[in-house]
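Hello forum,

I keep getting stuck at the same step: I have a sequence, I want structure tokens, and every attempt I make locally crashes halfway through. Rather than fight my setup again tonight, could one of you with a working pipeline run this one for me? It's a single chain of 171 residues.
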Amino acid sequence: SIFLCAEGLPRLFDKAVLMSGPFGMPAWSMEAASKKADILSAEIGCSLDDTAAWKKVPVADLLKGQLAVLKDHLAQKDSDTFLPLPFMPVIDGTLLKSSPGDALESGKGKWCPLVIGTTREEYAAFWFDKPELEGFATKVLSERFEAAFPGMGAQQVEAFRLRRPSNSDLA
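Reply #2:
Ran it on my machine without issues. Output:
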């Protein structure tokens, strides 16, 4: 979504598919992004402005740094950390002047045909270590099926679940 709505970038494609990722989630402020960058920099041991050093960092070290950012991220309880994603788009005022969702809604990406998709288990990765969400999808699905099929919602959910390859509890 960023390449559709960022300012000053060449058009590198003529069609796009937005699949999963942070689309629709709030972009980070420069302040929030700077904190993440400082954590990554400290973990890896590179100055943020040393581009040459960053180009030489082994992938294993980058992954270790990403884990440090994620651990800090999960410890936070503010609006910038709703989902356990260690990195997000950043509103920097130059390349990205607003959240990608807002920019696309205002027409910034209208030059490119766009398909938006999700995966079958779109939210499952974010349920990790969140017992308050256990059964949430099934509850919501049950309520929607009951509204659509009064008196038969539970039967419809069970029929739906049995058609899934894994017969999992996730709706």
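The mean pLDDT is 80. If your local run keeps crashing, start a new thread with the error log.
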